[in-house]
Each structure stands twice: as structure tokens, then as C-alpha cells.
Amino acid sequence: MRALLHTYSESELTKLLCEGEDTLAKSVFAELYDRFERRIYAYCLRVTGCRDDAGDITQETFITFYRVARSKYIDQPSAYLLITARNKCLNFKRDHTSYDQLYEETVPSDSTRNSYEQKDLLDTISKALPLLDFEQREAFVLRYWNGLEYKEMAEICGENMNVMRTRVWRAKEKLKEILAPFIHEISNL
Q1: Contact present, 2 and 30 (Cβ < 8 Å)
Q2: What are the phi and psi torsion angles at 101 (to 5°)?
Q3: What is the pTM of this model?
Q4: Per-residue pLDDT tens digits for 94-150
Q5: Which residues contact 109 (CB under 8 A, 6 or more apart)?
Q6: Residue 28 needs a FRET pair 20 to 30 A away by CA distance; which of 37, 86, 166, 181 works?
Q7: What's the mean per-residue pLDDT of the chain?
Q8: Sign of the dihedral through C-alpha 50, 28, 26, 110
Q9: How far is CA 182 from the centre of its chain?
Q10: How many CB atoms lie within 10 A of CB 129?
């Protein structure tokens, strides 16, 4: 059965997870985990800046998802997982306000792996992300690393689309300001 699960849509899988017996539920959950773990981890890494914390939050997110999905149907599991990860990151931020954020690793998307220049730019931006406030950093990550539309971002963050557009714009402006000396230095080489 596990081999056939990759052909199911995410909503069909969550229906099976909710209604299926334990053995089937475990296989369905494994399929959903395989589909969404990298995306959730990458989001958590960008927001927290620490691989260990991102891994912990990712695991907590999937545990919460499994518990809820076993008792009620979740129509859009990818959105539910991202909202849950966001809430867990917010809780983490609240509980660890004195934590110094250091970006240890970047996770470039598949489309940027072939381009060294883009990878260097992403690495540089990743190092500057901790200098943004949480709302700006989150909006930037959702938009440019997760590729979400403003409507999806607004739903996840519980804000309207204009607020999300403003946060992304302010994040980009702040990043330009932070990175301006480096860009100037590079252009003088």
C-alpha cells in the first residue's frame, strides 16, 4: 500500500489518516512527512536560525499534525503544517528572547543549486536575516523561500494582504540597507 500512496493527493491522504486503522495511518503519515518535511524544516531554519531548534520545531509540528489529523479531517495539510510551524516558531521566539540567532546553514532550493552566484547571494541574505525583526523575517521567508502568494501568507499569519506586502517590502528595504556595503565592496573589486 505504501508504494501507491504517492499517487494520492494531500487531502486524500489526510482523509485516510483520519479514517484509517493504525497500520494504514502510519504509512499515510510517513508519506505526508516525506512530502512536507523539507519545506517545514527550511521554514523553521530560516525563522529560528538554528538547525537543532528548526529540527525540534519540525518534529513538534508533525507530532501535533498527526494527533489532530487522527481525530479530525484536515483539508489542506500543507497549510495546516505551515501554520502550526509558524505558531511553534512564535512560541520558541517568545520563550527564547535572549537567544542569539546565528544562521548556521542555508538550504537553497533545487532551482538555485546550479548557480553559484545565486547560492552566494542566498547565503549572504541568510546571514542578514537575523537582523530583521521577526515579522519582516517571517514575511520574507514565506514569500521568497517558500514561494507563497500574499493571499496564502495573509491566511497563515492571520493578517490582511496589504500588511504582508508591507512586511515583505520593509524586509527587502532593510536587507538592501544591510547589504549595501557588501555589494559596494564587491562592485569595486
Answers
A1: yes
A2: -90, 125
A3: 0.65
A4: 887 644 444 444 444 454 444 566 667 777 788 888 888 889 988 998 888 888 899
A5: 145
A6: 86
A7: 82
A8: negative
A9: 27
A10: 23
Q: Please tell me the distance from the alpha carbon of residue 20 to that of residue 12, in angstroms, as a whole number.
A: 11
Residue 107, amino acid: V
Residues 55-85: b if buried by 16+ CB within 10 A, e if exposed: eebbbbbbebbbebbeeeebeebbebbbbbb
Rounded Cα distance, 24 and 21, in Å? 6
Q: Residue 154 is which amino acid?
A: A
The rounded distance, in Å, linking the Cα atoms of 15 and 10 is 9
From CA 43, how far away is CA 57, in angstroms rounded? 10
Residue spans of alpha helices (H) in 20-132: 22-48, 51-71, 77-95, 116-128
The whole-angstrom separation of Cα 58 and Cα 81 is: 9
Which residue matches cell numbers 521577526?
Answer: 134
Residues 89, 57 contacting (CB under 8 angstroms)? yes
pLDDT at residue 126 in the model: 80
Domains of the chain: 1-107 (1.10.1740), 113-189 (1.10.10.10)
The x, y and z cell numbers of residue 13, run together, are 491522504
Q: Return the C-alpha cell found at 184.
A: 559596494
Average pLDDT (68-85) is 91
